[in-house]
Structure formats: structure tokens, C-alpha cells
Task: inverse folding
């Protein structure tokens, strides 16, 4: 029997199996940030241990750094302490660290791919659930807890039960104004936020194959929102061309040799998945969420479902979500006035996302009442924005471009949406208070977010295309 892509990578990294227990899995690359690493370093040092393989770890400050005046000391005491601890711990253990002001600083899941650390066939972990982003390269990438971060520090291995395997196939060509973000929000609306619990997903089909690497990263990034352990896409020529020439990718003949190995990373024709779903691109339109988990989403022109149409076991959650959002069943959201727009995060903070935003904003001006957090995913993205003149388009539209960081995705810094206010966000989660206590988040694509900046309302971006 053939093997899935997931099996090929996982099995080749198993150091040993524990009878009726987890695998001891070798990890090729660990990414760390300021929030989930301090306790792991403390635990390691309290046991008199050193980091086993520091060359295979990369650190960047991103989660709670400010997105303004990064040249100044961080005002918030806990954030300043965490960032300083990350710098000190990385220096002491010989770990590559990209701090504020470093040309390679940025959100960990943006920095890894753009510097070539992320490569096909790898196992990758980070103390952050959206590590699944790196699966877009044909790697097994997943988030781990602080104790597991420490485990990898000490041994370059982690204890993990092997997940079941799911394949989600999306065929056809995405329509006008429909992005990879809309695709994954559509899948979430069909399968729910727990539809892939216990599984590792492989995304396949012509719609996936036709995507750029940055679009694939968006899809894999939000696989975790389905409840999955992670998501992945088999590498192909698009992958190889993206990786080629990046700072920490193999170079010259080494790259050619690596590609020959990477070409073997695919699911065999007779590979068996535990569960499979197939969707058609023609059924996908621009999407928005209306609730308090990413699975509560709908086509932008549709109405919020009625309570009676929801599975009985989920009705109380549904009603609670509508109450928090101050929405009603059967309500249409097109034309709903909103207060804030957030563009950025590890989901949609890359240069292609800002190109989409610029395509809507060019020659237009933001609605007077709209507030914005427009935040590049890294310093390299910010540099590209300026090189391509996108910063001028934003400025002429009345939109401020902030400095890189996670920003309002999780509001661990000052980038908070006020209580009761609505924010159209390109990030990945719309949980209660995710963008600030009492804030109300509507997830959408960069195109839909840009349209909302102009109109001040939830607007179908196809009106501007």
C-alpha cells in the first residue's frame, strides 16, 4: 500500500515508538518567540541542561511588540521583559535572534519562509498554533506547548501521538475577487471549527495547485482553525521556485540535489486517507464570519442562518455567538457599518496581501469614521511595500502603515479594538475579545477588508474589481 505525504515525512523522522503511546519525533527546525519560550528556557536551565542543537532554532520577537516607534524602549513592562528575556536567552544559548529593528525581524511564520528556513520534507515546531503555516511547503509543521518547546531545546525531539490523515480536495478555478482566504473560510463554514479534530490535513486539487506559495500559506495557516493538528500541501515547481535563492535555503548544486529529493514528496496514488472531502471552486465567493469561531462563516451576500438550521448540539453556542456579536438570525451583513479594519497577521501579512489591498485602495480614500491597523508581517515585507510604492497608495487613501508585528491579531500590545466595536480583520481568529476586551471580529480576505476601508461597511469587493 502506498504512503501519504504526511506518512512519508512523519515516518522518516520517528526516532522510536513508545508501545501504545506517542512517537519520539525528530524536529528539523524550531521557531521561538517571546511569549512561550521564557518558561521553557528556565525549565531547561533549572535542570542544568543546554540547548542541544541551537543551529536548528530561530528566534524572533513578534507577538506583543509595539507596531509604532519600535526604535524606542517598549513601554509595556511585561512585553519589554519578555522581549529582553528572548534576546538574553538566545544569546546565551547561541540561537539566531531577530529582534526589533533587525532587517529580518517579523512574525515568525512570515520570517521562516521568506528567509528559506522553511523547506519541504521538514518537521517544524513552534510554541504557536499557527505553525501549520509552514506546511504549505510540504512539511509536517505544528504548534507545541511550552513544555514541548523545552523538550525540543533539550533533545531536538518531541513526544507526539501520530494524527489521523485527512485530504481536502478543491477543484476548479477561483472566481473574480475570491482569494485563498475565502477558500479556507468556505471550507471552515462547511466542516465547522472542529471538523478536522485529530487529523493532519493534506490540501489538494487544481485550485490548490494554481495558488502561489503565499496563498498556500494562508490555507495551511488556518487548517488549525478546523481543529486539525496541521495542514500541508505537496511541494511542486511553484514551491521550488519560491525557495530558490533564499538566504538559508540550499544553494547551487546543493539546491538541485535537494529538489530531486523534494520531488518524491507526494501522496502515492494508492495511499489511503482516513477521511476525504471534495469541494468545487465555483461554489466559493467572498466570505465573512458572523460568530465567535472561524467556522461560523458565510458567503458575503448570504444571511446569517436561523437557529433551527443549526445542529441541536451547537444551537446554544450559535445563540451565544450572535448575542456577543449583536447579530440576529437571518440578518444580512452586506452594508453593515463597521468601525475598524485590521490588515496583517501570519495569515495575510505578506506582500501579495498588500498588493491586493492596494488594488482596491488605489485612487480612493478611506471612509472618515474608519480606524485602521495596517501591519506588515515582517521588515522585508515592509521594505517591499515601499519599493513597490504601496506605501504611497496607502498614504493617499488616508491609511497609516505601521511597523511589523502580530499586532491586533491577538491584541497583546496596544493595537486593540475598543469594546463593542466591529473590526473586519484579515487575521485567523474571531474569538470573544481576541482583538481586545469586548471587541467584535469579522474575518475576511484582504480584498474584502480593503473594500470596508473605503465604504466603512461590509462590502463585496467585486464591486471594485
Result:
Amino acid at each position: 500500500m502506498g504512503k501519504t505525504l504526511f506518512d512519508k515525512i512523519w515516518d522518516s523522522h520517528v526516532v522510536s515508538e513508545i508501545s501504545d503511546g506517542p512517537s519520539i519525533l525528530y524536529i528539523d527546525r524550531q521557531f521561538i518567540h517571546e511569549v512561550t519560550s521564557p518558561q521553557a528556557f528556565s525549565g531547561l536551565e533549572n535542570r542544568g541542561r543546554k540547548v542541544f542543537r541551537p543551529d536548528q532554532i530561530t528566534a524572533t520577537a513578534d507577538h506583543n511588540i509595539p507596531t509604532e516607534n519600535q526604535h524606542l524602549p517598549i513601554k509595556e513592562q511585561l512585553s519589554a521583559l519578555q522581549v529582553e528575556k528572548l534576546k538574553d536567552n538566545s544569546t546565551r544559548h547561541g540561537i539566531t535572534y531577530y529582534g526589533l529593528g533587525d532587517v529580518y525581524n517579523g512574525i515568525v511564520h512570515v520570517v521562516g519562509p521568506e528567509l528559506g528556513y522553511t523547506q519541504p520534507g521538514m518537521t517544524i515546531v513552534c510554541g504557536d498554533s499557527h505553525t501549520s503555516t509552514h506546511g504549505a511547503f510540504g512539511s509536517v509543521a505544528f504548534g507545541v506547548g511550552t513544555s514541548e518547546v523545552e523538550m525540543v531545546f533539550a533533545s531536538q525531539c518531541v513526544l507526539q501521538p501520530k494524527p489521523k490523515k485527512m485530504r481536502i480536495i478543491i477543484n476548479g478555478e477561483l472566481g473574480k475577487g475570491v482569494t485563498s482566504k475565502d477558500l479556507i473560510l468556505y471550507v471552515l463554514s462547511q466542516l465547522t471549527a472542529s471538523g478536522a479534530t485529530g487529523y493532519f490535513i493534506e490540501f489538494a486539487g487544481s485550485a490548490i495547485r494554481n495558488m502561489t506559495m503565499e496563498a498556500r500559506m494562508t490555507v495551511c495557516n488556518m487548517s488549525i482553525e478546523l481543529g486539525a493538528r496541521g495542514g500541508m500541501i505537496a511541494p511542486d515547481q511553484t514551491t521550488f521556485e519560491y525557495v530558490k535563492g533564499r538566504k538559508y535555503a540550499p544553494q547551487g548544486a546543493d539546491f538541485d540535489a535537494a529538489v530531486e529529493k523534494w520531488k518524491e514528496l507526494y501522496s502515492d496514488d494508492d495511499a489511503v486517507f482516513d477521511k476525504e472531502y471534495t469541494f468545487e471552486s465555483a461554489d466559493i465567493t467572498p466570505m465573512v464570519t458572523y460568530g465567535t469561531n472561524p467556522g461560523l462563516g458565510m458567503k458575503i451576500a448570504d444571511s446569517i442562518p436561523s437557529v433551527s438550521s443549526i445542529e441541536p448540539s451547537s444551537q446554544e453556542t450559535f445563540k451565544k455567538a450572535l448575542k456577543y456579536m449583536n447579530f440576529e438570525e437571518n440578518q444580512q451583513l452586506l452594508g453593515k457599518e463597521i468601525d475598524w479594519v485590521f490588515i496583517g497577521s501570519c495569515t495575510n501579512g505578506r506582500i501579495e496581501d498588500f498588493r491586493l489591498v492596494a488594488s482596491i485602495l488605489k485612487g480612493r480614500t478611506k471612509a472618515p469614521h474608519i480606524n485602521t491597523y495596517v501591519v506588515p508581517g515582517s521588515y522585508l515585507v515592509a521594505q517591499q511595500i515601499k519599493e513597490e510604492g504601496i506605501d504611497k497608495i496607502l498614504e493617499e487613501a488616508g491609511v497609516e502603515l505601521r511597523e511589523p508585528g502580530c499586532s491586533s491579531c491577538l491584541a497583546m500590545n496596544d493595537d486593540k479594538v475598543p469594546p463593542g466595536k466591529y473590526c473586519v480583520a484579515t487575521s485567523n481568529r474571531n474569538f470573544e475579545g481576541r482583538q481586545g476586551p469586548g471587541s467584535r471580529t469579522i474575518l475576511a480576505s484582504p480584498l474584502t477588508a480593503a473594500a470596508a476601508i473605503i465604504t466603512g461597511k461590509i462590502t463585496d469587493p467585486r464591486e471594485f474589481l
